[in-house]
TrEMBL record:
It comes from Candidatus Portnoybacteria bacterium CG11_big_fil_rev_8_21_14_0_20_40_15. It is a multi-pass membrane protein. The lineage of its organism: Bacteria, Candidatus Portnoyibacteriota. InterPro entries: AA-Vitamin_Transporters, EamA_dom, EmrE-like. It holds the Pfam family EamA. This is EamA domain-containing protein.
Length: 300
């Protein structure tokens, strides 16, 4: 595995933790569908500006019809439908539980990656994954014995994102991370715009308040950082490992919640230890095994 890729994916996890925490407040002051469209559209425009300034615009011209189709599919499965489900669901459930459900994505990704990308699920990965899940369960105030409508919407979005990440990993074999990020946000914004137009949901856009515009701009900035670091890192890291690292974001969200006024309990401390142990188990062993393999190959 590539060290740079690991750092980028870890940065994505930290950004994700902040985003979940802030998005909980955002969807309480603005229509979640309008919020999703504006945020994604702003990120798509920002990525378009990058292509106007650097060499990626040449790469766009060289894309084949198949690659354009894959980018469109990524926009549909990853950049539109799940966003609508996720932010609507987040407005109906707690930030901590929404974050926990989202971070279970690596389970579905690992299964799909093993089936379609032939990524191996090692014993080390399973042990680390168990520690990550255990740690995130500790962070919940109570075990999720039942699911609300909001939880189910977040779960559906999470499964769609799992599918999208496997497709994106396939696309990244030939494409740069910035191009895949652009395809997700650009085509995703178009699909969301179509949905809002069809459902008559565009009217609230013209009556946004300064507060709503501010929240949208803040979260769009976080999303911009998220997609750039994620797809750039995913190119060099197995998708099952990368999505497992994202679970660290759940800890970030909970720590932010604690910092906003709650006290730290022994349960939170145990959760942090479990999550860090899980990450160390997955990242260190994978990274070290790659180093040893590379050294042996050079020696021969």
């Amino acid at each position: 595995m590539n060290k740079k890729g690991l750092i980028l994916v870890l940065a994505t996890a930290i950004i994700s933790g902040f985003s979940i925490f802030i998005n909980k407040y955002s969807v309480s002051v603005i229509n979640p569908y309008v919020f999703t469209f504006l945020k994604n559209a702003l990120v798509a425009l920002a990525l378009c500006s990058i292509f106007l300034a650097i060499k990626e615009r040449v790469a766009l011209k060289k894309l084949t019809k198949k690659q354009w189709s894959v980018l469109g599919l990524i926009g549909l499965v990853g950049g539109s439908v799940p966003f609508l489900l996720f932010f609507k669901g987040l407005s109906l459930t707690s930030a901590a539980q929404g974050s926990f459900i989202h971070k279970t994505m690596f389970v579905y990704v690992a299964i799909l990656a093993a089936m379609f990308l032939r990524e191996k699920i090692s014993k080390e990965f399973l042990i680390g994954a168990l520690l990550l899940i255990l740690g995130n369960l500790f962070l919940l105030k109570k075990l999720p014995v039942s699911f609300s409508k909001g939880d189910l919407m977040v779960l559906a979005a999470t499964f769609l994102w799992a599918i999208e990440n496997v497709i994106s990993k396939y696309a990244l074999r030939d494409l740069d991370g910035k191009i895949v990020a652009w395809g997700r946000m650009f085509f995703g914004s178009i699909f969301i715009l179509g949905y809002l137009g069809f459902s008559g949901g565009l009217a609230p856009i013209v009556s946004l308040s300064i507060v709503q515009i501010g929240w949208t701009a803040i979260t769009a900035g976080l999303l911009f950082g998220y997609v750039l670091t994620w797809y750039s890192g995913l190119k060099y890291v197995p998708v099952s490992v990368a999505t497992a690292i994202l679970m660290f974001g759940s800890s970030v969200t909970t720590m932010l919640s604690l910092a906003s006024g709650a006290s730290v309990s022994l349960k939170e401390i145990a959760a942090g230890v479990s999550i860090m142990a899980g990450l160390a188990f997955i990242i260190s062993l994978k990274y070290l095994s790659g180093k040893v393999s590379g050294t042996l190959q050079k020696g021969t």
